[in-house]
Amino acid sequence: MKNSILHILLLCLVPLVASAQVGKYRSDLAIGVNGGIVMNKVTFNPKIQQGLKIGPELGVTVRYTCEKYFAMVCALQTEVNFSRQGWTEAPENGEYGYQRDMDYIHIPFMARLGFGRERKGFMGYLILGPQIGFCIGESDTRTGEWTDGPNPYDPEGPYINVPKNPEGQWRQYNLGVEKNFEYGIIGGAGIEFSHPKVGHFTLDGRYFFGLSDIFNNGKKDPFGRSANSSIIVKLSYFWDVKKTKDNTIK
């Protein structure tokens, strides 16, 4: 009998606990613009000696805030960005240099968790989610001494342009992007300043880890892996399109 009563009490408590855990409703929509820099490398296997390739990133942002759960403000954020990525090589022998520029349209879909003031003051936040991209163009810059004639590594192959004295891998110089679609994971942290009459300003740092390759990676291909990885620093400005009517929100 006691066990039956205990079970009934527990069943009665479940809805109460569930209702106590429901967050405070929000329906805030903000749109904005963003700009910053992206510092990129391409993870090659076999490895290629590289420096950080620095380029611009800019675009538009949409953010929808849906709930405040205890002290955590939950939102969804997506962007459409133009990003110039690639890689740069500066070998130790100094006889040549190489830089590849790759232009992408990137679309991240991120969950955003904020802690702090929503309407006036400062808020810290975390962002995490998937990102897809499309390579829309590429170009390269070559400096130093390069050959311009028959392939010294394959006399029966096509004419190529490679360094006179390459260090390690050389086949990347004459490969165009073979996989234009890119996907991976992006995440980071930042700070936001809000004012009801001015809008929202955010500054954040992000890291993108590519899960796809830019070159084919079959057994007969020169690289088993060729994926972008980026550090991004970005400043954004938002203005409110729709705000939840609640005078208690600070």
Index terms:
250 residues; mainly beta; eight-stranded antiparallel beta barrel; 1 helix; 8 strands; elongated; disordered N terminus
Describe this entry's structure for a reader.
This protein has one domain: Porin. Helices cover 8% and strands 59% of the residues. The chain contains one helix and eight strands. It has one helix at 2-21, and strands spanning 24-45, 53-69, 72-89, 96-116, 121-144, 181-195, 199-210, 225-242. 26% of the residues are buried. Mean pLDDT is 85; it is low at 1-21.
Q: Cα distance, first to last residue?
A: 50 Å
**H and E order:** HEEEEEEEE
Sheet with the most strands, sense and barrel status: 8 strands, antiparallel, barrel
Radius of gyration: 25 Å
Mean pLDDT: 85
What is the helical fraction, as a range of percent? under 10%
CATH fold descriptor: Porin
Beta-strand portion reads over 45%
Going across the major beta sheet, what is the strand order? 1-2-3-4-5-6-7-8
Structural class: mainly beta
**Number of domains as seen in the coordinates:** 1
Please report the first level of CATH classification, the CATH class. Mainly Beta
CATH architecture: Beta Barrel
Q: How many alpha or pi helices?
A: 1
- The number of E-state strands comes to 8
Which shape, going by the Cα principal axes? elongated
Low-confidence stretches: 1-21
